[in-house]
Amino acid sequence: MKQSLKSRLTINFVALAVIPLLLVALVVAWLGFTVERRQALALEGEVALRVAERMQTHVTGLADALLQAGQAIAPLARAARGPVAATGVAHGHGLSPVLPGGVRRLDRLFHMPGAPVLAVQILDADGTTLLNRGAGPAAPAPQRTASDDAFVAPMTTGLVYYGPVTFSLPGARPMMTLGVPLPDPRTGKPAAVLVADCRLDGIRDMVADTTGNSGEVVYVVDAAHRVVAHPDANVVLAGTLFTPPREEGVQKGLSGTLVLLAMRPVALGAQVLTVIAERTMASAMTAALGAIVSLAAAVLVGVLMSVSLALFTARRVFAPIENLARAARAVQAGDLGYRARADAPDELGELAVSFNSMTCQLSSTLAGLQDKVQELTRTQQKLGEREKAYRDLFETSAEGILVTDERLRVLEANQAMLSMLGHSYRELTGLDYEDLIPADAPAENPAQAAAALLASGGTVRSEQRLLRRDGSSFVADISARAVDQHRIQLVVRDVTARKRMEADLVAARTAAEDASRAKGEFLANMSHELRTPISNVMGMIDMTLSTNPTDEQRAYLLQVKASAASLLRIINDVLDLSKIEANRLRLLPEDFDLHDLVERILASFGPDIRPKRLRLTWEAAPSVPRYVRTDPDRLGQVLTNLVGNAVKFTPHGAVAVRLSFHNADPARPRILFEITDTGIGIPDNAQATLFDNFTQVDSSYSKRFQGTGLGLAICKRLVEMLGGSIWVESEPGQGSSFFFTIAFTPARATPAAWSAPLDEGPRPNAGPANAGATEAGPEAERANAPEPHAPLPDAALAAPDAAPGPRVLVAERNGIHRLCLRTLLTDAGYRVQDVPDADAALAALAAEAHDIVLLDTGDDLAHNAPGLAAVRAAADGAPVIALTSAAVAEEHARAEEKARARARPPAGGDGLPDDCIARPFDRETVLTTIRRVLARTPGA
Asked: In the chain, what is the straight-line distance between the N-terminal and C-terminal CA atoms, in Å?
């Protein structure tokens, strides 16, 4: 693509101004992020160190307490050797009742806060058991011998022995065996060993007290990589294993996600416990993200200023060049009197002066050339008149004419023929007709053709390629007839342009077909690319609303959600219009209850009419059939649009809908719909273009009322597709009446379900004349309070109370959709596992069974059928719900309804999903669909 000098200069200036600024911003942001990460890591290291020191102090204090108790109890145990002591040991009561003082000391050990002792055994230097006592008769102490490490290590080294961490049931409480050497007061050498099984409840309390609520968690791992202390007792109870990484920093944490992780070892004799403190990256990098946002704002301001300065500089530099370019274009257009401005006393100014001098000389030279051209023209005119006098017969014909003899030798040729062939008159006369036919033309004997022509005396017309003098050829339409027995006249027409036009028409038709296919693909892409971000916005708003915002924040969020829904409606209108123009919109006729459809549509306008205190009524003539066959969705779309316009443009008064039988064409019956309002009306000059694309009544109306001007255009197209027409009657200030007709056929059947009312209980204002009304006012508000589709309470949408809840696998490509679904379902009590695609879903199903699967199938179920079939097979009977577009969900619902009416197997039996959930995801719809699918699934 050609790029102007001005554009190149502007781009270069902008790049020189912006790129260094962006590089500096990136370096500063990276440095800030690195410093913040180091500070957060140091903070986590301090937390881990503090817990490690407390653990060290706690366990060593426990060993000191055991040492003091053992030094007091050991002499008593030695003195009590004999039948009584042995009896006491056999019964698990140690020194009682002979040594009451020792018993009191033991009781204090068994009731130490934070580390209750479970069992105590004292062994003499020769391995003889002096004392063996549990916490009570129901908890006897294990019998150890002189070969146990808990005895050998203290006796050999004189140091406290710390055994590996084990767990006592119930509750998976950490427990450690301590061997404390009891020195002889005279020699200082170990004379006995006190072995105690102690619970380390204090370690669990330290970890739980240290863990905060800002994404931080502290836990302890032993040498076997087993989690021995965690704020969540279920993690310890499950025997969770975690291998500490070699280095601190950003590592995978206990949950498998990247966290900021710090470690501090606690050495207890030969045993090493590792205290690990981890914090989520979002919590650790909060300050850095804030600084980056501030820096981005500053960089944006700097970029805008730099771009403005670059544009100003480029404009100043390019102004003289643009002046010369304008002058050159003017001269090129023939204006030799245009002069370039020579304002600046520099090289460009000198160039402008030289250019002006050149144009002056060129103007003078051109005047002389024009005189010579005029002279040559007069000479040619004289020659032409003389030639015309001699060849008037041939030159009056715009078609080429050849005159040949009976052997098809050229005798005469007019100027048109000479122009076609590129020959001069002298060259062409005397040639054989066969010399004018290309060598690769179909073989034919010209002499035989001429003889047949002379014999028949008629006219023969054919198409044949003729050879020009330069070797090229062209297609000619030739009409040949015999002038007399010795001369044949051939009238030749060059049909190359016609042939090219025919080829162009074929190419244009092919291009139009390609464009139609491209437009269809474009519509499919636009449907996904436009709806996906809006679905993300609406999903994140729903998540934010579920976090108990303030009333003011909730009001703001609801306004944003309403705007997003309005934008989604606009996009749907544009896509519907594009589908109609591309002839991709198909009607799906079916039998339905017409009265039920009208009532459901009018009931949906309850929230709109109550603030205005409007009266919304409808009635149907007795001649209008109740059960008809046409496309209810497209009919509902037209009726919703027209009633919505009437409500929107009616500040007060009433809106009425009337149905009557339209018999203008008895061969094809129609129903006439009339929507009348008492609103602002439509001027006469606007009614003619009211149903055109992107047309609104007036610019003042467009400022007061939102809209794209596509609604009525879509209504017109849909009504025409439904076999009817649409028109309007209106007076400004008096209201409007919109009329449209649709063709229909009587319903093939009237199931009993159609005769049931829309909601339980009597319908308000419904009378025997098939009429209904929705009124504004206190009484009407009470009558219309329960909306047809009122939201279900949270308790009805949540998972069953039994714990744990059903397991749900969410396979969604869009990260924001996946986050919304995971949060929504987790809050509702389900156990959720989310993966990014179908391949990951297959791996998750192979690793663990799930009760239900939510699978992203895109906007084309047929295209994603293999992946859906694979997931269904891996789900092993678990239902699969497709996450797709609204159009696909609607078609699936229709197919399921028809299959149910024909007593076919339920959805999912033929490779289709069990149900569909359309984007954007709505909390009530998602939870209701899941409960419905689980309820009809055997064993769910």
From this structure: 62
**HEC string for 127-156:** CCEEEEEECECCECCCCCCCCCHHHHHHHH
The beta strands (E) that lie in 207-341 are given as 216-221, 227-229, 249-252, 258-268, 271-280
713 neighbors 727 (Cβ within 8 angstroms)? no
Q: State how far the Cα of 433 lies from the Cα of 440, in Å rounded to an integer.
A: 15
Token pair 């123009």 is at which residue? 581
pLDDT at 355 over 90: no
Q: What tokens were used for 37?
A: 């990460």
Strands 161-162 and 227-229: unpaired
pLDDT for 628: 92
At 774, which helix (H) or strand (E)? strand 771-774
Quote the pLDDT of residue 83: 40
Q: How confident is the model at residue 367 (pLDDT cuts 50, 70, 90)?
A: confident
Report how far apart, in Å, the C-alpha atoms of 691 and of each of 634, 709, 820, 875 are.
17, 9, 40, 51
DSSP notation for 18-59: HHHHHHHHHHHHHHHHHHHHHHHHHHHHHHHHHHHHHHHHHH
pTM, rounded to two decimals: 0.38
- Which of left, alpha, beta for 902 (phi over 0: left; psi -120 to 50: alpha)? alpha
Is a pLDDT exceeding 60 seen at residue 287?
Answer: no
Give the strand order in the sheet containing 670-677. Answer: 726-731, 735-743, 670-677, 654-662, 615-620, 771-774
Amino acid letter, residue 456: S
Q: How confident is the model at residue 787 (pLDDT cuts 50, 70, 90)?
A: very low
Q: Is 882 helix (H, G, I), strand (E, B) or coil?
A: strand
Pair of tokens at residue 144: 């150890």
DSSP summary character for residue 817: H
Q: How would you list the strands of the sheet with 258-268, edge to edge?
A: 227-229, 216-221, 271-280, 258-268, 249-252
Exposure string for 579-618, b = 16+ CB within 10 A, e = fewer: bbebeebeeeebbbbbbbbbbbbbbbbbeebbeeebbbbb
Do the beta carbons of residue 95 and residue 131 sit within 8 Å? yes
Look at residues 643, 675, 647, 646 and name the one whose alpha carbon lies nearest to residue 659.
675
The two structure tokens encoding residue 481: 């007839």
- Mean pLDDT throughout 75-85? 58
CB 155 within 8 A of CB 161: no
Quote the CA–CA distance of 416 and 402 in Å, as a whole number.
10
Position 639 scores a pLDDT of 93
pLDDT at 905: 46
Strand, helix or coil at 775?
coil
User: Where does 546-611 have alpha helices with state H?
Assistant: 551-581, 594-603, 606-609
**E-state strands within 820-872:** 831-835, 852-856
The strand pairing partners of 120, in sequence order, are 133, 196
- Could you tell me which residue, 829 or 698, shows the higher pLDDT? 829
Answer left, alpha or beta for residue 346, where phi above 0 means left and psi between -120 and 50 means alpha.
Answer: beta
Q: Where are the beta strands (DSSP E) in 627-734?
A: 627-630, 654-662, 670-677, 726-731
Q: How far apart are CA 609 and CA 385, in angstroms?
A: 86
| E strand residue ranges, 468-604 | 473-482, 488-494, 590-593
pLDDT grade, residue 171 (50/70/90)?
low
